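User: For a benchmark we're assembling, each entry needs the component sequences followed by a predicted structure for the full assembly. Here are entry 17's components. Please fill in the structure.
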Amino acid sequence: MDSKKWDKIATGVLYFIAGVMILILAFLLIFILWNGLPHVSWHFLTSPAKSFQSGGGIGIQLFNSFYLLILSMLISIPISIGAGIYLSEYAKKNWLTNLVRTSIDILSSLPSIVVGLFGFLVFSISAGLGFSILSGALALTVFNLPLLTRNVEESLRSISGSQREAGLALGLSKWETVLKIIIPEALPGIITGMILGAGRVFGEAAALIYTAGQSAPPLDFTNWNPFYIASPLNPLRPAETLAVHIWKINSEGIMPDASQVSAGASAVLIIAVLIFNFGARYVGNHIYRKMTGTK
Amino acid sequence: MNDEIKEKLLKKSRATRSEFRGRIISFVCTAIIVTVVVSIFYFVASKGLATFFSNKVNLWDFLSKTIWNPGSTDSHGSPQAGALPMIVGSFAVTILSAVIATPFAIATAVFMTEISPNKGYKILQPVTELLVGIPSVVYGFIGLSVVVPFVRHTFGGTGFGILAGTFVLFVMILPTVTSMSVDALRAVPRYYREASLALGATRWQTIYKVVLRSSAPGLATAVVFGMSRAFGEALAVQMVIGNAALLPHNLVSPASTLTSVLTMGMGNTVMGSAANNALWSLALLLLLMSLVFNLVINKIAKRGKF
Amino acid sequence: MKKRIFILLGLVFLGLPLTACQANSTDGQSITAVGSSALQPLVEAVGEDYTEANSGNFINVQGGGTGTGLSQIQEGAVDIGNSDLYAEQKKGIDAKKLTDHKVAVVGITPVINKSLKINNLTTKQLIGIFTGEITNWQQIGGPNVPVVVINRAQGSGTRVTFERWALENRTVLQTQEQDSTGMVRQIVASTPGAISYMAFAYVDNSIKTISIDGVQPTNKNVQSDKWKIWSYEHMYTKGEPTGLTKTFINHMLSDDVQNNIVSKLGYIPINQMEVTRHLNDELQVSK
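Assistant: Structure for entry 17:
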């Protein structure tokens, strides 16, 4: 009897805590959207920012955020998957592997400003990339790799050993087993990690202040030649992202409508992350179904 | 004829070659990461150690003194770099926020995986992922406009301090810890639960005695990640903690963390000067402290395995 | 399928450096100015103005703080280093290698929370507040509210100027610090009994300025040096500027920009100053 009562109590408590959690999250979302959405308009989304008059938009920043996200994910996803595979499938269980793992964990706790300065000195200055999307993307890769790698490793590890044995028994090599059986099976976990990583990229400001920079020069949206200096695709132009823009107008903005722009930009940022999350999840599920044959 | 077969047998098969290639690719990826890690460590360490070797700050003074003014020198001619207030502040907010966030996150994760895997999961999963994407600046501003006045009215003081920092960090690390706990709980094989239920255990007993225990290492990792995020978080904490390099008297007096002082000072100091090196020492300290955290948690996690 | 993805990614990797090389050699010139976040909005606005008039020339303006600006110009990593301070005032900078261009003047004023009914402070009272001797507004005839001092980050140009000209270089008490003006403004606006200081350009109606010894913080008083708390905004170049850097600095100093953009943004045009203040604080009446 007693254990049944405990079961009921525990279930009640869990419901309560989950409810509180939902309330906190809902409060945050509603707070941001309520404050921000009234300032969002088509004009706001498409026009460039103004430096000291009111009426500026966030068009370029929005584009920059997405471009930077894609670029940095293009670099970090393959590296993290490769390293995750190595750590979970190939690495011998010894102190060296543990050392690598621990150092990756520690790296993930570095404050982003340190990563930003590292990126500034290494990518922007030593490598000569200057304040550019590319150095921003590389800095974000450094910032994101630890989390992504650990996530891939954990996801791969959670696949049961029998799947590997089955693959090997079919005469597949280890690598083929990993690529064709383990990764498809672990895909949902990996995708969750990628989405979390992408969210971090989207919201990161401190690592970008010194690398991708805080200025958004006007772009020529009719010229998509990536070598042209004002082309949106040029990876060597400075690019202020949405999160950096929010940070900047909050800290030193002198336009009269700074707080409205900041609230509106925060709301847009959240909606963008939302769309991105759902999109990635949809695509991820699609690939998962295709690769595993489940319905 | 025979030669052909012989050759075929002697030649490496396609699978062997792809295996070799795969090994190399994945090894190279790991090597890239290790290179990045090593170079960052070297980078931070070389600058951080300069405080002690070229600016002649005593290591013990650095850890135990409470006056932080590395731009000027004390009576012995070495920079006044006493980091104790920041060390205390960082530890306080990290531990407090993790202590509050862990039960919340794990309970929510249990709810999402064990109690209501369909509805609860479908609602909470996207929302937690969404919250990770909110920039820390926005968290900071919500903290400034909601948490700080709340603390001021309820607990007195100016509202800026460790308590406000804890609240903000609690909300910030909640999504990360929750979603990683969910992954850890989902990794527990189904038959563990079935076996426990078959033995007549209630759902709560199953959760408590089987699921939580077998996922302990994963949960610990989730908490470490949360803590390391709290530890390294700069912008949001900086907005609400007050940034006073003073030993905190209580939870509502202005304090500072390693990251807040680091972030604030970086742009205002000249690279290579004593003041700048002292900031890098803080970064180095941050690395070392998270190393300690990691080792401790790894030990705990190992004990949780069975 | 996976393999194809890998190959594709490999191509992208190879492609990036190639793009990098070619992008450098395209037409259009750009220079980079880095440093002081207080000067950043101005340089940005003038840069936009310049780009509009001379298409293909980009002025890339970044913040990062005075320290970053001076270290990077000293390294030669950027074209212009923006600074709130004389390079000589910053430790670790060899000012001889740098050329100073004073492009504007900023006035700095103490600001307080609006609920305080205080309009004037004497210098002595101000020093008392910032050194921690005065801890309640009651002590100087205000309401019974504790004083909350919000300072700027150590080494920030605003703080150095304020301590020099308003507090006579006294050692201030260790207290709350913030590194950005926007934050300071928000905190002062929302915290009862708060006092801080900021550049004129950032003052809005959410906070209140105060006079010191009866002198009001206005542009006019700064121009005549009646209001002492002001400083130059500097753009440093390594050696004499050349090419686009030179043209841009000349554009910045042109009467057109000084009289329109500079004053519109709340800075004080350099050509309207009636006095010149030298590095050693010596004053010289120029008009």
